[in-house]
Write a structure and sequence with these properties.
- This protein has eleven helices and 21 strands.
- It is globular.
- The protein is an alpha+beta fold.
- The relative contact order is 0.09.
C-alpha cells in the first residue's frame, strides 16, 4: 500500500531500485541533487538535470513537461552520496504560471520498478515559490528512507542550489533552464506537451530521442558520431524511452505513444470545438441586428466567418496530421521490435518463440485507436501478474454499446479472426469470436510464462466450447475437456478456493514449505463460459470470492459471458462486473479514458485468418513442459505477498 506522506514525514524504503513519478499539471523542470551527509553539493556534477540527465544510479527527463519519471538505483550511487533530493522548477517560456501558488499542486509518487506504490506526497500550500525541493531520499544507518520536504524558493533554481552550498549556482541554474527549454523551431499551438530537444542531438547512428517526446539515451556504449537528418526530426527508434531493460523501455515507449496520441487528438477536438463555437458566435452577431440580416454586408460577414472557421479547422488538422505522421513512423519501427508478450500474433517473433525463463512485465490484450486515424493502433498492455480479471462480452449487443461507425468493416478488412467481412456479426458469431479471443489470451499467457508456472482451467457447463478449446486440449494445456453440468462447476470452483485459502495462509504464516504436496502453486487462469448456465447461488458466491481474493493468490478470472443474460441474479453480481476489465470480441469504442475524456476503440488480439500460430505456440509449450518434467526442476514460487 502506498504511504501518503505529509510535510516532514519520512517512510522506510525496502527497494533499491525505485521510480519517482511527478505530476504537476503545468510544465516543470525536474532534477536531482546528490548531496553528502550534510546535504551539501560538492560541485555541478552533483546535480542531475536536463543538460546532464544521467549520473551513476540516476536518470532524469531531458525537458520540461507536466509529467516526469525519474529512475534511481540506490545501490549504484557513489558511496559519498547520502541524500538524493528531487527538485522541481517552473519552466520559463513554456506558458506555465509564474509561481507554484498559481498552478495545481504537484504530486510525487515513489514506486517500485514493477509499479508497486511505495510512498506519495502532494505539495500543498505553495505560494510565491518558483522552485521547490519536493522529496528527499536519505541514507540513515545503512538503510534508505524517503522524506516529504516541500521546501520552496521564491527566487527560483539559483536560490535552491545556492542554499545547498553549490558554487556558481546562478550559472548552473541558467544552464538547466536553457537545456530544458523547448526547441525554438517548435510550432504553436502544439497538442503534444513536449518536443525535440533544444540541445544538440546525441551523436551516433541511433538517436534515442522520440521526435515528439524528450527522452534520455538508453544505457549502453556511445556509438560513433553521425549527422542527424537536416530536413526534420530524427527518425524514431524502438526502445528510446527510459527504463532498466529493453522490455521496460519498450513498455514505457508504448505508453508514451498512447499519451502523445491522446493529447494530440484532444487538442484537435478542442480546436474544432472552439472553431465551431466561434463561428456560431459570429453568425449570431450578424443576425443580432435586424438591419444587418439582409444585404451585401451580411453576406460578406457570414462568408468571412465561415472562411475563418475553415482556416482554424485546417490549421488544427495540419497540427494533428504532423503529430500522427511522427507517431505512425514510430509505430512502424516499434511494432516489429516488440517481444512476444507485446507483439501481435502476426509478428514474426512468434515463429522463433521459445518458452522464457521469467515472466514478462506486461501482456498485450489488443489494440487501441481513435476515429481520427483508424490505421494508427497503440498496443493495449496490462501489467503482470494480472491485478484485475477480464470479462469478454459475448452478448450480441456488444457492438451496440459503443461501437465506432465502420469498425466492423475495418475489422473485416484487416482479417483478424475470420468470417467478419460483410457487416456486423450475428449473435452466434459474436459468441464464437468471444471464445476465440479467450483462447488466444490464454495461449498468450501460457506462452510468456516459464514452463509449469501458469495453468488454465475452464468451466463450460453446457459443453458448447469444445471446438474453440481444441488447441488447449490437444496440446495438453488443458488436461481434458471441461466436466459439464453443475458438478463440473462446483468441482473447479471448490478446488481453486482451496488453493487460494491455502496460499493465503502460507503467505501470512511464511510457511510455504507446509503446503500440501499435491497443491499446484502455478498461477491459474479460470475461463468461465456460458455463465450463468449451471450456476446456483452458492456457485455465484464462490465466483465472487475468486474475483476478489484470487489475484493476490495467483488465481485470475476470465468471464466469457453475456451481461444481459446474467442480470437474473440482480445486483448481487454488480461488484463482480465492476471488478473486471470489460473487453469485446469485435471492435467497440467502450474503453473510457479519464485522463482526457476519450472513448478508445478496443480491437481484440486474434490470430490472422487461417493462421496456426496459436496451436504452434501451444505445441512448443507442451514440448517445454515435457522437457522440464524430465529434469524435475523445483516448483514455481508462491505469488508475492500482497
Amino acid at each position: 500500500m502506498t504511504a501518503e506522506l505529509v510535510r516532514g514525514q519520512n517512510h522506510p524504503l525496502d527497494r533499491s531500485r525505485v521510480e519517482i513519478r511527478i505530476a504537476a499539471g503545468v510544465p516543470v523542470v525536474a532534477g536531482v541533487t546528490l548531496g553528502d551527509e550534510q546535504g551539501g553539493l560538492p560541485d555541478a556534477d552533483a546535480v542531475v538535470h536536463p543538460g546532464a540527465p544521467r549520473r551513476p544510479g540516476v536518470e532524469v527527463p531531458g525537458q520540461a513537461a507536466a509529467a516526469h519519471r525519474i529512475t534511481v538505483d540506490l545501490n549504484a550511487l557513489p558511496a559519498t552520496v547520502h541524500r538524493v533530493g528531487v527538485l522541481l522548477a517552473l519552466a520559463a517560456g513554456s506558458g506555465a504560471p509564474a509561481t507554484f501558488g498559481a498552478a495545481p499542486a504537484p504530486s510525487v509518487r515513489l514506486t517500485a520498478v514493477d509499479g508497486t506504490g511505495l510512498a506519495g506526497y502532494t505539495l500543498t500550500g505553495l505560494t510565491a515559490e518558483r522552485a521547490v525541493v519536493a522529496v528527499e531520499l536519505y541514507r540513515r544507518q545503512g538503510a534508505w528512507k524517503v522524506r516529504a520536504v516541500g521546501q520552496g524558493y521564491a527566487d527560483g533554481l539559483a536560490a535552491l542550489l545556492h542554499d545547498q552550498g553549490l558554487a556558481r549556482a546562478a550559472e548552473l541554474a541558467a544552464e538547466i533552464e536553457a537545456a530544458a527549454a523547448p526547441a525554438p523551431t517548435r510550432e504553436a499551438p502544439a497538442p503534444v506537451a513536449t518536443s525535440a530537444a533544444a540541445t544538440p542531438p546525441a551523436t551516433g547512428p541511433v538517436d534515442y530521442r522520440h521526435p515528439g517526446r524528450r527522452s534520455t539515451p538508453a544505457p549502453g556504449p556511445t556509438p560513433p558520431a553521425t549527422a542527424p537528418a537536416a530536413d526534420g526530426p530524427p527518425p524514431p527508434v524502438a526502445g528510446d524511452a527510459a527504463g532498466w531493460s529493453m522490455e521496460e523501455r519498450l513498455y514505457n515507449q508504448i505508453w508514451g505513444m498512447f499519451e502523445d496520441l491522446a493529447r494530440s487528438v484532444a487538442a484537435y477536438r478542442s480546436a474544432s470545438d472552439f472553431a465551431a463555437s466561434r463561428l456560431a458566435q459570429e453568425l449570431d452577431e450578424v443576425l443580432a441586428d435586424p438591419r444587418n440580416r439582409l444585404g451585401t454586408a451580411a453576406d460578406v460577414a457570414r462568408a468571412t466567418a465561415r472562411d475563418r472557421h475553415a482556416t482554424l479547422l485546417t490549421r488544427a488538422r495540419a497540427a494533428l496530421d504532423r503529430d500522427l505522421a511522427q507517431l505512425t513512423a514510430e509505430s512502424e519501427v516499434v511494432e516489429p521490435a516488440l517481444p512476444p508478450a507485446f507483439a501481435r500474433w502476426d509478428n514474426p517473433v512468434w515463429q522463433g518463440h521459445h518458452i522464457p525463463l521469467e515472466r514478462p512485465m506486461a501482456l498485450r490484450l489488443g489494440d487501441l485507436h481513435l476515429p481520427e486515424v483508424l490505421d494508427l493502433r497503440i498496443p493495449m498492455l496490462v501489467r503482470l501478474p494480472l491485478e484485475r480479471g477480464l470479462w469478454i462480452d459475448s452478448g450480441p449487443d456488444s457492438l451496440a454499446r459503443g461501437a465506432e461507425p465502420g469498425a466492423e468493416r475495418e475489422f473485416g478488412r484487416r482479417e483478424l479472426g475470420s468470417a467478419l467481412t460483410d457487416g456486423p456479426p450475428d449473435a452466434a458469431e459474436v459468441r464464437r469470436l468471444a471464445l476465440e479471443a479467450a483462447v488466444a489470451i490464454a495461449a498468450r499467457l501460457l506462452a510468456v510464462h516459464p514452463a509449469g508456472e501458469f495453468a488454465v482451467q475452464v468451466i463450460d457447463p453446457g459443453g458448447a466450447a469444445g471446438q474453440a478449446l481444441a488447441p488447449l486440449v490437444e496440446t495438453g494445456a488443458l488436461p481434458g475437456p471441461p466436466v459439464p453440468g453443475a458438478q463440473g462447476v462446483a468441482t473447479v470452483l471448490e478446488g481453486l478456493i482451496r488453493r487460494v485459502d491455502l496460499v493465503q495462509m502460507a503467505v501470512r504464516s511464511r510457511a510455504a514449505d507446509a503446503l500440501p504436496p499435491d497443491l499446484d502453486t502455478a498461477e491459474q487462469l479460470l475461463i468461465v463460459h456460458d455463465f450463468p448456465h449451471g450456476f446456483d447461488d452458492r456457485a455465484v458466491t464462490m465466483l465472487r470470492y475468486l474475483a476478489d481474493e484470487g489475484p493476490a493468490a495467483g488465481v485470475h478470472l476470465m468471464m466469457v459471458a453475456d451481461r444481459a443474460q446474467a442480470r437474473e441474479f440482480g445486483p448481487v453480481l454488480d461488484p463482480l462486473w465492476r471488478s473486471l476489465l470489460r473487453i469485446t470480441p469485435v471492435p467497440a469504442a467502450h474503453l473510457a479514458d479519464p485522463w482526457v475524456g476519450h472513448a478508445w476503440t478496443y480491437e481484440p488480439a486474434l490470430a490472422p485468418k487461417g493462421s496456426q500460430v496459436v496451436r504452434q505456440v501451444l505445441t512448443r509449450l507442451a514440448e517445454a513442459r515435457r522437457a522440464a518434467a524430465r529434469t524435475e526442476p523445483a516448483g514455481p514460487p508462491l505469488p508475492p505477498t500482497p
